[in-house]
From TrEMBL, chain A:
Assembly notes: Forms a complex with SecF. Part of the essential Sec protein translocation apparatus which comprises SecA, SecYEG and auxiliary proteins SecDF-YajC and YidC.
A GO CC term assigned to this protein in UniProt: plasma membrane
Gene name per UniProt: secD
One protein family per Pfam: SecD_1st
Organism: Salipiger thiooxidans
NCBIfam families assigned to the protein according to its UniProt record, in alphabetical order: 2A0604s01, secD
SUPFAM superfamilies, per database record: Multidrug efflux transporter AcrB transmembrane domain (SSF82866)
Compartments reported by the entry: Cell membrane
Ranges where the Protein export membrane protein SecD/SecF C-terminal domain occurs: 376-542
Protein name: Protein translocase subunit SecD
Automatic annotation (TrEMBL), chain B:
Protein name: Protein-export membrane protein SecF
InterPro entries named among the record's database cross-references: SecD/SecF_arch_bac, SecD/SecF_bac, SecD/SecF_CS, SecD_SecF_C, SecD_SecF_C_bact, SecF_bac
Gene3D superfamilies: Multidrug efflux transporter AcrB transmembrane domain (1.20.1640.10)
Superkingdom of the source species: Bacteria
Chain's gene name: secF
A GO-annotated cellular component: plasma membrane
Length: 553, 331
């Protein structure tokens, strides 16, 4: 007859309570949020009385996970960046040139003189004066190749070397390109994450999308432009020897050299040796500071190997200038006054305080291995977000009330049972969203409202079935039992198909669509649980106490 | 207490008296929808077309003409300016949407253009604020539209397979054609009314797919049950009985969903109004199509009548029915 095992009852109540406890922090959103921030701050930089007081606003033993509010609700900036992975091929080739030169020089008798030719990006073209020695030259250059370090490219080498007439053409092999792309992406993600963390905002989303894209969402930031200033620059810092100073941007620099513009002085260009003395990769620290004239500047410190290279170079080149180059612009080109030991220094230029602070952040976090193109930028102001939250709350409240009243009017007591289940359902959705750290967006709220409407469906199916069974079955207990049993197949089919669409939306969609898919999918799972198990339990408990002879439904 | 009954306990509407007419009407509506789509096209948002939208807010009333002049003076190509009205706005809240076409050949978005537009608008209305600025490059928007269509197609395909497995191919065909009908009619309405068609509308379309399907499956589930119960009755009668039996539930669910959606439509703000509109339309058209398209097609295609032997699942179903003391007694 109509009964539910004790262990099932306990399980149902336990799940409901767990869901509600997880959802509870959201009722005290701002309080829990400041608690969480304070706890993080204490972990990071020690405790103060003020932070302790903030942390004490929410009891430690309660869960403190909140539903993340999406950008459309909280305001903030969204960027979709494409990493120019091919940039890295070029710098690899530039770095390879000295090795190729040295290797071929050793065999000068066979290959003749060697000259670097200009070539399309990502390839290295070297001309030898004795084409007869091509075979030998290729052999020498091929010997420079290294095995590819990756799972898929095992067994392959990283260079593809071929001869074209009297030219040797070197480029990265396909396997190496893939491995390089992978590394570039991972580095870029890591560096963007570090840069954003330095600025210290709450709950940023930094995700890889597809093969060469990165999605960055930072709530609470003023605009996408601000966000781009933080992450958009590659911040490749190099120290390069200066060959000469010129005003002609098309100056013939000679092979192995390059012409770069000055950052501050219009029309001034420097001819620099392409191979840097030291690069920003060997920096260990950088801080905003002021120079002796009180102008904003940036200090830096090298690691031991960088410090040694820098020290040796300055010792050997006293009296000649060297250039500090950031992202292909010469920040300054001071003349070396003395041997700089210890590996620390200061960069001066026409910085504002803000620029020097930003530059220090960029240098500390490291350089991006490749440039970024921004494909999508969105800024949502906090007022619009607040308006959306208010509207969403009101709409959800009204929708909810309307459905509750309607259900009670239609099904009486059973409608009330369904209403309890519906309220628990919303609690469970919020609880799960908090626990998995999902993000609630405006379409997500719409998803919840839709589940409110559709959650009722399972109960409607059951109650309608009970009404039908009442006409024929032996007594109310039997009718209830049959009602649940026979409605089940329709409920499962109906909800499974909706789950299928939710899953497809989640997998294919992005941004708002995904937020909607999450709440829709979760809502279906929780609504089936509450509509089938919770209402059934409520009805069984009621039935056991009252033992009614007839049912009003 | 007397409970509210929207539908009488026993109904015996003849839904299939003019089923050919209904299918014909649906066919004509589909044609109209496609013509509208072909002639007017969809009002694609920046998600699909690329470009920039700026939402402005100012205490002064929006002067579309002045805005237009200011922006046209920049010579940045096509732009549209529209004022936004919403009952939830305060008296000091005058909102406009400025949409700037994607600049040709620009893979990425130019912040310079946006800055220029913002400066120009600031000249017109000094207190103007830019509450949201969104730009999508043409490269991404092209992909977004592809994935969106892929998503809808995949969802419908998955449903086809599921229903085929759970029911019979005729059911799957009926359900899927009803879905296609719903999706196409929705697209037709969007092109006719000119509501902005963006990514969130795709989410709405897929929800319509889910909802309409929900409705169809509930009816089909009952049809399957009744096909076993009334082995000798003509299909038309069985379909009619099934739809009448589930009518009360169909109306109840549609009404509760509509109640929730209308609340969202009226109070949820203008940002998601297009989205909610699509879903409201979807509830109507989904409810209609599960009866007059999906079931009518089932009638047209015919179904296998003998569910008891070869199909193991149908057999299990049949057994559970015969176990019940009341099988067949509710007629």
């Amino acid at each position: 007859m109509l009964q539910i095992d004790t262990w099932k009852r306990v399980l149902i109540w336990a799940l409901v309570v767990a869901g509600l406890v997880l959802a509870a922090p959201n009722l005290f959103y701002s309080r829990v949020e400041s608690h969480n921030d304070a706890v993080k701050a204490i972990e990071k930089s020690g405790s103060t009385a003020e932070l302790e007081a903030q942390a004490g606003q929410w009891p430690e033993w309660l869960p403190s996970d909140l539903v993340n509010l999406g950008l459309d609700l909280r305001g903030g900036a969204h960027l979709l960046a494409e990493v120019r992975v091919a940039d890295v091929y070029q710098s690899r080739m530039e770095a390879l040139w000295p090795d190729v030169r040295d290797a071929l020089r050793g065999a000068r008798d066979e290959v003749g003189t060697i000259r670097l030719q200009s070539s399309e990006p990502g390839t290295l073209r070297v001309r030898i004066s004795k084409p007869d020695g091509m075979a030998r030259a290729l052999e020498l250059v091929r010997a420079l190749a290294q095995p590819v370090v990756s799972l898929t490219g095992a067994g392959a080498t990283d260079l593809e070397v071929s001869g074209e007439g009297s030219d040797i053409v070197v480029q990265l092999s396909e396997a190496e390109r893939q491995a390089t792309d992978e590394r570039t992406m991972r580095q870029s993600l890591e560096i963007i994450r570090r840069r954003i963390d330095e600025v210290g905002t709450r709950e940023p989303t930094i995700q890889r999308q597809g093969s060469d894209r990165i999605l960055i969402q930072v709530p609470g930031i003023g605009s996408a432009t601000e966000l781009k200033d933080i992450i958009g620059t590659t911040a490749q810092l190099t120290f390069q020897p200066v060959v000469s100073r010129t005003t002609n941007p098309n100056e013939n620099a000679g092979s192995g050299n390059e012409v770069l513009p000055s950052l501050d002085e219009d029309g001034v260009y420097y001819v620099l040796e392409q191979a840097p003395v030291v690069t920003g990769e060997e920096l260990v620290d950088s801080q905003p500071s002021f120079d002796q004239n009180g102008r904003p500047a940036v200090t830096f410190r090298f690691n031991p190997s960088g410090a040694r290279k820098f020290g040796d170079y300055t010792a050997e080149n006293i009296g000649s200038p060297f250039a500090i180059v950031l992202d292909d612009e010469v920040i300054s080109a001071p003349v070396i006054q003395s041997h700089i030991a210890g590996g620390s220094g200061i960069i001066t230029g026409n910085f504002s305080v803000e620029e020097s602070t930003n530059l220090a952040v960029l240098l500390r976090a490291g350089a991006l291995p490749a440039g970024l193109d921004f494909l999508e930028e969105r800024t949502i102001g906090p007022e619009l977000g607040q308006d959306s939250i208010d509207a969403g709350k009101l709409a959800t409240g009204v929708a909810f009330a309307a459905v509750l009243i309607f259900m009670a009017l239609t099904y009486g007591l059973f409608g009330l049972f369904a209403n309890v289940a519906l309220i628990l359902n919303i609690g469970l959705i919020m609880g799960i969203l908090s626990a998995i750290g999902a993000t609630l967006t405006l379409p997500g709220i719409a998803g919840i409202v839709l589940t409110v409407g559709m959650a009722v469906d399972a109960n409607v199916l059951i109650f309608e079935r009970i009404r039908e069974e009442l006409k024929s079955a032996r007594g109310p207990a039997r009718a209830i039992e049959l009602g649940y049993e026979r409605a089940l197949s329709a409920i499962i089919d109906a909800n499974l198909t909706t789950i299928i669409t939710a899953v497809i939306l989640y997998v294919i969609g992005s941004g708002p669509v995904r937020g909607f898919a999450i709440t829709l999918g979760l809502g279906i799972v929780t609504s089936v649980f509450t509509a089938i198990w919770v209402t059934r339990l409520l009805i069984v408990i009621w039935f056991e106490r009252r033992r009614p002879r007839t049912l009003e439904i | 207490m007397r409970h509210l009954r929207l539908v009488k306990d026993e109904t015996s509407f003849d839904f299939f008296k003019h089923w050919k007419l209904w299918l014909g009407i649906s066919g004509v509506m589909l044609m109209l929808a496609m013509v509208s789509f072909g002639v007017r096209g969809l009002n694609y948002g920046i998600d699909f077309m690329g470009g920039t939208t700026i939402r402005t807010e100012s205490a002064q009333p929006v002067d579309v003409g002045a805005y237009r002049q200011a922006i046209d003076a920049l010579g940045i190509g096509d732009s549209t300016i529209s004022e936004v009205f919403d009952p939830s706005f305060g008296p000091e809240q005058n909102v406009a949407m400025v949409r700037i076409q994607a600049q040709d050949d620009e893979e990425a978005v130019t912040p310079e253009t946006i800055a220029a537009v913002e400066a120009a608008l600031q000249q017109v209305a000094p207190d103007i604020r830019f509450v949201s600025v969104e730009s999508v490059g043409p490269k991404v928007s092209g992909e977004l539209i592809q994935t969106a269509f892929l998503a809808v197609a995949l969802a419908i395909g998955a449903v086809l397979v599921y229903i085929w497995l759970r029911f019979e191919w005729q059911f799957a065909a009926g359900a899927v054609l009803a879905l296609v009908h719903d999706v196409l009619l929705t697209i037709g309405v969007f092109s006719e009314v000119g509501i902005r068609f963006d990514l969130s509308i795709i989410a709405a379309l897929l929800t319509i797919v889910g909802y309409s399907l929900n409705d169809t499956v509930v009816v089909f589930d009952r049809v399957r049950e009744n096909l076993i119960k009334y082995k000798k009755r003509p299909l038309k009668e069985v379909l009619n009985i099934s739809i009448n039996e589930t009518l009360s539930r169909t109306i109840m669910t549609s009404l509760t969903t509509l109640l929730a959606l209308f609340a969202l439509f009226a109070l949820g703000g203008d940002v998601i109004r297009g989205f909610v509109f699509a879903m409201i339309w979807g509830v109507f058209v989904g409810t209609y199509s599960s009866i007059f398209v999906a079931s009518a097609l089932l009638l047209w295609l015919g179904v296998k009548r003998d569910w008891s032997k070869p199909d193991a699942e149908a057999e299990a179903n049949g057994k559970s029915k015969s176990k019940g003391p009341s099988a067949g007694a509710s007629v």
